[in-house]
Each structure stands twice: as structure tokens, then as C-alpha cells.
Specification:
single chain, about 375 residues, about 35% helix, binds guanosine-5'-diphosphate, binds manganese (II) ion
Length: about 375
Amino acid sequence: MKLHEYQSKRIFARYGVPIPQGDVATTPEQARQIAARLGRRVVVKSQVLVGGRGKAGGIRLADDPDEAEKVADEILGMKIKGLTVKKVLLDEAADISKEIYLGIVIDRAQRRPVMMASAEGGVEIEEVARVTPERIFKITIDPFLGLQPFQGRELSYGIGLSKDLVRDFVKIAQSLYAAFAECDASLAEINPLVVTDEGKLMAVDGKMLLDDNALFRHFELAEMRDADEETAEEQEARRQGLSYVKLDGTIGCMVNGAGLAMATMDITKLHGGEPANFLDIGGGAQAEKVAAALRIILSDPNVKAVLFNIFGGITRCDEVARGILEALQEVPTEVPMVARLVGTNEEEGRQILAEAEMETAATLVEAAQKAVAAAQGER
Ligand code: GDP
Ligand code: MN
């Protein structure tokens, strides 16, 4: 789950990272009031869940409340990389003398968090990594020890920070790590962390990604979810407890079990097809859930065939078959379908589908071949 800049910065601040004073507005009038309250030059920042807002014109300075209102009016409703701006953050403008990058991600190979710092802040770090990788300094964090002060100092020397800022930098690095660890984040980033003209460090931008699998123990964070982050289908899938990822192919896949879903996609590709989605309906799925899953698959106009691959353990194949028919009554469709049902009550399941004149298959390979042929209109 992605957090907005203002949400990320508020979390960072709770752990001791200095951030500018500011507040969020959804109307130009509110923006004017916030700017008046701050009583000085402000920066008006679009809150959308993508990077590079500055370059896209979504970040602008305003000298007084009237200008803040005007600028907010222009930014609200703007489209940035396909997302409509619904909120703006108004922060006291910082007088920036230097922009630093500071971030933490999980290094899967090392199975540990890695903190990165660079004196080339402000720009996209991927670009720095590509062009001048030697300008990024990294340290690996032991999850049992946390970020050690000497590691923070090492990073600050690496990026050539002036001596009088090292203490504050280390404190910020430790605060950022505490936020990262306690919130179960997969990424926590300050870009830029600025040195102001008065020689103070401050987080001007903030970004956090949270591990969805840990949200059950962070109710307060889970509530921060921006509905716009997901498509209507993804939201529906989450409500129904389905794991769903949309892809670009033409063969809709409905499978129970994540491993089986991966295997189904592999076999589909092996036989010349492209999966339209990853969809795991989970164990013991009821007819209603199957129907919801089918609705989601069929709502994708790219889908030219649907492949069901169900292994009945706890899940009963007859229940799945009934779910499929239930869904087809609700959403009549011309899209051809192939079903492979194996395991508990497979006979009943297949019989139910055969009566509905649906194509069935005995093996996954056969099912994939039939689905690929059907998607290509060879049926
Ligand atoms: P991003 O483009 O989405 O990463 O948004 P940022 O919040 O990082 O802002 C982009 C750039 O705008 C920063 O790198 C700064 O150069 C500039 N910027 C942001 N806030 C301020 C501010 O308070 N004062 C000044 N002078 N520039 C700012
Ligand atoms: Mn930024």
C-alpha cells in the first residue's frame, strides 16, 4: 500500500524527523486559509501516488494566501501520470541550499533492510543509480540491532555532509529506520532531505510503501488507504478476499492457490497464450466468491477466454461449478471458457459444467491448449 507524501511525512515526524509546518486542502479556499495561517511563503504540492510531481508542474511556490489559492485552483483537478489531483499539501516553503537522498528498502538477496544516501538528492534515485552508482552509499541493517549510530555516521561521511550536521543526520536516519521497522514498511524515503539556508536538515518530501500482509496489525495505517490507488476491480477483489493482479494478456485465469495460479500462468504462456490476470480465489471458496471472481475477470475487455484451474482439497469442485454458473447467469457472456476441476467432488463438478455445455479438460496442459485456441478464435 502506498502512502501520500503528507501521510508519510506525518509518520516520519512522529518518530522525530523534522518536517515543515503544513496542512492539506481539498479546495482553493482551504488552501488560502492554510497559507494565511502559515503566514509566509508556501509550497503547494499535489498529493498523488506517483513520483516526479515537480517536473509535471504539480509543485509550485506561492508568496501569499491569494497566490496560494490561485495556484491550488490550478493544481487541484490536474492530471499527473493519469491520476487526478484531489488534495494539495501546503507547506512552509524551505530555502534550500542542498538536496540529499535518504531511503530504506528491503534487500531481498540479503534479507535485510538497506539504507541508502546520496548527495544527489531531489532527482529520481533510479537515475542516479543508473548514471553514477558510485554516488549512492549503502549500509545493511541488522534487524535485531537496528541502525547503529556509526552506520549513520558512515553514510554522512560518504555523502560529504558538513561536520556540524552529522549528529542531526544520524538522528534522522535512526528515526526513519524506526518508522520503517515499526510500520512494517517495504520502503521509506526522504527525497529530498534538504539543508536549509539556515543550515538545518529537514524532510521536504516523503514516501512510504507498507507491506499489505502486515496491515492487519496496523489498523490506523490501513485506514489511510487512498481508494484511487486501486482500480474498481482491485477494490472489489480485496473486499471479497481474492488475490488479484491485472495483467495485459487475453486469457483470464481463475485458480485456487497462489502456487497453482503461478503454474497455470506458466503453462498458459508455454502454450502460446498470455494471461490476463493472476487470480487466487483461495481455499474453500464458496459459490458467491467464485461468482465475484468471474465478474472481475469478465470486466476486462481484453479477456478472450477464461481458464478455470481448480484443485479441490478443501474447496469442493461442485461448489466451484455452481459458482461459475451462478456468475454466468448474472453476467451473460460470449467469452469461451475451459474448466479443469480435479479433486474433491470433481465428478459432480464436471457434470454440472457439462450440463451447461462448458468445455472441460482432464489435465492442465489440455486446459491451457484449449484456452489458447479459444482465445485465438479457433473453437
Ligand atoms: P517530487 O517531484 O514528486 O519528488 O516532489 P518533491 O516534494 O520532491 O519536490 C520536487 C522538488 O521541488 C524538490 O526537489 C525541490 O527542489 C522543490 N521543492 C519542494 N519543496 C520545496 C520548498 O519548500 N522550497 C523550495 N525552494 N523548493 C521546493
Ligand atoms: Mn521527491
